[in-house]
Amino acid sequence: MSLLLRVEQALSHHFDQAVGIGAPPRLVAAMRHAVFSGGARIRPQLCMAVAAACGDDAPELTHAAAVSLELMHCASLVHDDMPAFDNADTRRGHPSVHKAFSEPLALLAGDGLIVMAYRVMLQAGAQHPKRLLALMDNLTQGVGLPHGIVAGQAWECETSADLGQYQRAKTGALFVSATCAGALSCGHAPEPWASLGAYLGEAYQVADDIRDVIADAASLGKPVGQDALHARPSSAQALGLEGAIAHFDHLVEQAASSVPACSHRDMLRQLVQHEAERLVPKALCEGYFKDHASAIPARVRTPH
Amino acid sequence: MSLLLRVEQALSHHFDQAVGIGAPPRLVAAMRHAVFSGGARIRPQLCMAVAAACGDDAPELTHAAAVSLELMHCASLVHDDMPAFDNADTRRGHPSVHKAFSEPLALLAGDGLIVMAYRVMLQAGAQHPKRLLALMDNLTQGVGLPHGIVAGQAWECETSADLGQYQRAKTGALFVSATCAGALSCGHAPEPWASLGAYLGEAYQVADDIRDVIADAASLGKPVGQDALHARPSSAQALGLEGAIAHFDHLVEQAASSVPACSHRDMLRQLVQHEAERLVPKALCEGYFKDHASAIPARVRTPH
Predict the structure, then answer these.
(1) What phi, psi does A91 have (nearest 5°)?
(2) How far apart are CA B163 and CA A3, in angstroms?
(3) Is the CB of A231 inside 8 Å of chain B's CB atoms?
(4) DSSP B233-301
(5) pLDDT, tens digit, for every residue of A138-171?
(6) What residues of chain B lie within 8 A of the CB of A151, using their CB?
(7) What is the predicted ipTM?
């Protein structure tokens, strides 16, 4: 079974189990819309891939950990799309939750998903209390203060923010949680897997900045040009578009090299390369430069 | 030391510990404003009072559980005050978080407080992993789906909602979590303490409905007349003001009678009675009826 299929099945199973019986139906529908409207599921896939490399001796725990990461990610998207932040009408090519339901339900759906992430963990882990506590701590670090994605988002509200710190928290933190969760769900030490998450997470944030400049809204599934509009810190602004693409390539390379020696090293490196091309397709970059300048810059692949 | 003082000290200690170092300062300030701008601290006091009745053999766990309940409560207030819901400019006599900081920071402060509630638990409970997991499960039930306070708030977004179900979830759920947490932090069974939380929680919601009608904004510390304005389910609407007051008195009596036989029974009953008078002061009711009708109705104290 492909990783993606395992993720989708686990999400569907754990979502239904965690919703329980008797919840307000529109809230459940809003949360379902937030979770099951597409999405690359890269965080849960990373978690499962690392778990496979670590022996995956408690797959029910791996599944719950993977699902909880995706629920946190979806919660952050729902709140980020709201009028107080991006005011985005679309997400993954569908109406955003506040557009499809209402602002109150989007606010509550995000809250409900955060709590559901913990519920999924608590429902899965009775057999491994120590691993479970380590996984919940790891998840909490990826989301909360001082360096999780909520803190990352909040750096946008400060008068000054270090771009690296902002990106590491806004996106990197939950990627680090994802790779570490894969190890923790097998009772392994998470440290050897932290770099993979950190590099990939930073690459994702840079990719997001790049696509915000070069993609069109239809292919991106959400509005473009948001960083400039909201005066947000952005690699494309800070490094220029060419610099940002070079930085992205470098991060992807570092991510691939960071995979520790293990039986699944090739599979993990392939996953990284596949994601890199999905995130910043070479054809898209070349097309953009063709339209916007006479010279098509070579993609820089050396460290800088 | 009084319960309230213990709560304030625990809140201050665990908040600082959970914030950590390096978080965005305005986010931290917004979260601090949400937690340290007054508040009766009834949920954490209930937790500590029940723990005392159960022997309180792990006070560091009791403190963390009490703090996590209050953080969840504060998170819900921050999000409820936002323009998408009550659009309340004031809370506890101070500007609400979105007024004092901004809507984005209020949204993130609420998210951050939910996650911080779990972090406080995870930082406290290494010595008692089983109790810790039971406490986190109990907290999650009080907040999440299907019957926690997030679900309760979401019943306002449904076209039809049962008033009892709405009140039990919107307020009662976290009160039940509070009394149960007191028992769980000592390794005791929570069931004997659930009724106390349920009756008190319902009484609080009814008191809120009553005060929304009879209080003035200055003494309440937030806008009044909100239920009618937002067409929310309300006991005062459903039962009339007199009926709501009688219902409140009955619930308080049931709460006091539900306290199981224990060494701290009198203290717990006093806490209930003290809260009842604080919530719906007799003088306030009498003053209201004097101003609004010729007859001052007797407070009904028999079951109905």
Answers:
(1) -155, 125
(2) 45
(3) no
(4) --HHHHHHHHHHHHHHHHHHHHHHHHSPSSTTHHHHHHHHHHHHHHHS-HHHHHHHHHHH-SS-PPPP-
(5) 999 999 999 999 999 999 999 888 888 888 888 8
(6) 23-24, 27, 112
(7) 0.92
User: Token digits for A145?
Assistant: 């203060």
| Structural domain range at position B38 | 3-292
User: What CATH number corresponds to the domain at position B164?
Assistant: 1.10.600.10
Amino acid at A259: V
Q: Cβ atoms within 10 A of the Cβ of A37, count?
A: 18
Does residue B236 lie within any of the structural domains?
A: yes
- The residue written with tokens 């995979």 in the block is A259
Tell me if B66 is assigned to some domain: yes
Enumerate the β-bridge partners of residue A91: A94
User: Looking at the domain assignment, is residue B297 inside a domain?
Assistant: no
**Considering its fold, how many domains does chain B have in total?**
1
Window 3-62 of B, Cβ < 8 Å to A: 18-28, 31
User: How far is B92 from chain A, CA to nearest CA, in Å?
Assistant: 22
| Distance set, CA B231 to CA A101, B203, B238 (Å) | 19, 20, 12
| Positive or negative torsion for Cα A181, A182, A187, A193 | negative
Query: Hey, what are B286's tokens?
Result: 């009498």
Answer yes or no: is B298 within a domain: no
Interface test with A, best of B145, B153, B160, B232 (most A CBs within 10 A): B145
Contact B153, B76 (CB under 8 A): yes
Spatial contact of A161 and B22, defined as CB atoms under 8 Å apart: no
| Alpha-carbon distances, residue B229 vs A241, B164, B171, B226, B237 (angstroms) | 51, 20, 20, 5, 12
Residue A192 CA neighbour count, 13 Å, CB half: 14
Per-residue pLDDT tens, chain B, 304 aa: give them: 799 999 999 999 999 999 999 999 999 999 999 999 989 999 999 999 999 999 999 999 999 999 999 999 999 999 999 999 999 999 988 999 999 999 999 999 999 999 999 999 999 978 999 999 999 999 999 999 999 999 999 999 998 888 888 888 888 999 999 999 999 999 999 999 999 999 999 999 899 889 888 877 667 777 778 887 777 778 888 888 899 999 999 999 999 999 999 888 999 999 999 999 999 988 888 888 888 865 445 443 333 3
DSSP class of B157: G
